[in-house]
């Protein structure tokens, strides 16, 4: 049985990944946790029967100890990924690292290089690759049923409520504290696109803005908080009272208040970040962005990320020389339209759990990888780093207004580091 430790007992660390140990205690056991929030730390320790001496208040405190176990899960905030991961590789841990690897492009490359140098497993949580829906899509594409893929349209429909929760009020609202929207939300998309297309992305161009969730767009009568007597709160689709002060049991109210009572939730939105008006937050990440990509196998891709959607899902169209494939992730349908006139619908098997069971399957695959000591996994750092660089280059293009050649971009980053 594998012994493991967790850095960061937030929603992803505690429920998406570590909960696997509660279902499969014969495969993995958590023997230590590092988490600054006392309540979350105590809850995780209680769930996994972790003694007091193995509960730490920070990743620094844990990694000051001699190596505690074989495996480390790093699920801290974005800007607390690189340092603990490098330290853990130095100590000899095999690592499952929450995405993004780092908000800095050179740190992403260094992590991949260090894992290869140390010959240790560093797997990145690109859970979408484990989603049975996308695995089925990959199988269809690899069979070549629509001939050679020439063009792809891919849309990430963020969902108006999800944008407000995570990227206006929540943890990933400000790139100065975390990372850019294209990296944090869409590095999954960059990773999957290179996986599906099977080529190397050569160039990107991108446009995008924070256009709507700004103070000047606040409606007349609005207040700093939804609970401050806002005159338009009842009609506002972003009302914190509507979204959080209700009997729903999904994960978003749990983030607002770990205590599930309505009284606790009301107190949280009266005092905490999730009760703020969406037009009066300290957010700076974009609310819509497009990225165009060109691959070395001559495939062109148009990617759109938008907050202004009713659904929270991904939709796409792959256009090939013998047909096209359309998809809608939430509907669990892959539609193949052959140019001969035949149509085929595939509905992949679904697993229980987060991200259509992909969180569970990510942990299962990582455990098997550790057991077999296989360094080149499905989402290894070397594979993930290239997708990250696509996102970094897209953001660079958005900010500069220029097309970006990825190889030149990497070379420029490395040269600037030497000069610095």
From TrEMBL:
Under the heading Gene3D superfamilies, the entry gives: Dihydrodipicolinate Reductase, domain 2, NAD(P)-binding Rossmann-like Domain
Q: Which residues form the Gfo/Idh/MocA-like oxidoreductase C-terminal domain?
A: 138-376
| Database matches in InterPro entries | Gfo/Idh/MocA-like_OxRdtase_C (IPR004104), Gfo/Idh/MocA-like_OxRdtase_N (IPR000683), Gfo/Idh/MocA_Oxidoreductases (IPR051450), NAD(P)-bd_dom_sf (IPR036291)
Q: Name one GO molecular function term.
A: nucleotide binding
Residue ranges annotated for the Gfo/Idh/MocA-like oxidoreductase N-terminal domain, each copy included: 2-125
Tell me which Pfam families the record gives.
Answer: GFO_IDH_MocA, GFO_IDH_MocA_C
The family classification in the record reads: Belongs to the Gfo/Idh/MocA family.
PANTHER family the UniProt entry points to: BILIVERDIN REDUCTASE A, BINDING ROSSMANN FOLD OXIDOREDUCTASE, PUTATIVE (AFU_ORTHOLOGUE AFUA_4G00560)-RELATED
Report the protein name in the record: Gfo/Idh/MocA family oxidoreductase
């Amino acid at each position: 049985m594998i012994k493991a430790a967790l850095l960061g007992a937030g929603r992803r660390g505690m429920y998406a990944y570590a909960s696997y140990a509660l279902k499969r205690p014969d495969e993995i056991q958590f023997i230590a946790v590092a988490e600054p929030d006392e309540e979350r730390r105590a809850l995780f320790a209680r769930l996994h029967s972790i003694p007091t001496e193995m509960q730490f208040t920070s990743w620094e405190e844990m990694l000051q100890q001699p190596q505690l176990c074989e495996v480390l899960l790093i699920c801290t905030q974005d800007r607390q990924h690189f340092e603990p991961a490098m330290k853990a590789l130095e100590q000899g841990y095999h690592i499952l690292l929450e995405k993004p690897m780092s908000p800095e492009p050179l740190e992403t490359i260094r992590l991949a290089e260090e894992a290869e140098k140390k010959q240790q497993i560093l797997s990145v949580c690109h859970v979408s690759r484990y989603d049975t829906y996308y695995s089925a899509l990959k199988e269809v594409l690899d069979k070549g049923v629509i001939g050679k893929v020439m063009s792809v349209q891919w849309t990430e429909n963020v969902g108006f409520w999800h944008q407000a929760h995570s990227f206006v009020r929540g943890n990933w609202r400000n790139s100065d504290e975390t990372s850019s929207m294209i990296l944090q939300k869409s590095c999954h998309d960059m990773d999957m696109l290179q996986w599906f297309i099977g080529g190397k992305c050569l160039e990107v161009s991108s446009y995008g803005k924070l256009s709507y969730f700004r103070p000047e767009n606040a409606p007349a009568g609005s207040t700093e908080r939804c609970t401050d007597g806002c005159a338009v709160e009842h009609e506002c689709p972003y009302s914190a009272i509507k979204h959080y002060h209700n009997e729903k049991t999904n994960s978003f109210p749990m983030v607002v208040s770990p205590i599930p009572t309505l009284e606790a939730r009301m107190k949280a939105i009266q005092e905490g970040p999730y009760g703020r008006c969406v037009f009066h937050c300290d957010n700076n990440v974009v609310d819509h962005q497009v990225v165009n990509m060109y691959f070395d196998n001559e495939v062109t891709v148009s990617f759109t990320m938008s907050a202004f959607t009713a659904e929270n899902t991904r939709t796409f169209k792959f256009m090939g020389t013998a047909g096209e494939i359309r998809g809608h992730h939430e509907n669990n349908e892959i539609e193949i339209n052959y140019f001969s006139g035949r149509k085929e619908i595939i509905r992949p098997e679904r697993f229980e759990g987060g991200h259509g069971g992909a969180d569970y399957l990510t942990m299962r695959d990582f455990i098997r990888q550790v057991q077999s000591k296989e360094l080149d996994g499905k989402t290894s750092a070397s594979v993930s780093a290239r997708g990250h660089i696509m996102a970094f280059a897209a953001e660079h293009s958005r900010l500069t207004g220029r097309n970006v050649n990825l190889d030149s971009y990497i070379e420029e980053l490395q040269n600037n580091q030497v000069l610095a």
